[in-house]
Amino acid sequence: MFKGTPEIIAQRREEIVGACEQLYQTMSFKDITLKEIGNVTSFSRPTIYNYFHTKEEIFLALFEREYDRWNADLKDILNSNQNYTGQQLADLIAKSLEKRAQLLKLLAMNNYDMESNSREELLVSFKKAYGQSLQYFRKILEKNCSGITDAEVQQIMYVFFPFMFGIYPYAEVTAKQMAAMKDAEVDYKYQSIYEITYNCLVRLLVH
After folding, report:
1. 77 in the same domain as 178
2. Suppose 19 and one of 26, 40, 77, 122 were both cysteines; which one would form an S-S bond, judging by CB atoms 3.0 to 4.6 Å apart?
């Protein structure tokens, strides 16, 4: 790790992660290299190694940032003075994930690679952001779902959080995939991130 002030280290790490995010808008995980990332930053590839040892570590930092962004929305839902119904919660959480397509894309595409090819200290930092999402989600349920038991909260979370891995591939379908489905005569109704998430949560929260 580059030895500098915490502010300089954080600033340069953010620039590298931001470059990765920029590339990920138009390129696949497989095609993005440290050289490509270096071309978008003010650093050379050897300099990037001072902050991240692998491409996966950079993506893991981007992944962590996406969880932090989602956590901000979950925190707002939790801290609201209003008590929400199951349908209202489903709507609010679905809207919060609708803004986090990149989070869902990372979950669906590259989660295993990022975690297995990153140093433990970076993985711990990422897991803290992920753990914060679990905590906020749990507290939202406990606050708004009257009489809900701990076992019921666990059951909902163990359905919904694994479910999140599949949202992006069902919602973000390429023209090639749509054409293949049509040619294969697969009768499938495409839905948005919001619709898929909302429909799942309504079934979990509304009784």
Report:
1. yes
2. 40
* Position 156 pLDDT exceeds 80: yes
pLDDT at 188: 83
* pLDDT of the residue at 135: 98
Same domain, residue pair 69 and 29? no
Which tens digits make up the pLDDT trace of 104-138?
999 998 788 899 999 999 999 999 999 999 999 99
pTM strictly above 0.85: yes
Indicate the angle between helix axes 55-79 and 86-98, nearest 10 degrees: 150
CB 62 within 8 A of CB 92: no
Task: Find the angle CA(130)-CA(135)-CA(138) to the nearest 5 degrees.
Answer: 125
C-alpha gyration radius of the chain: 19
Print the domain residue range for 97.
62-205
Higher pLDDT: 70 or 45? It is: 70
Number of domains in the chain: 2
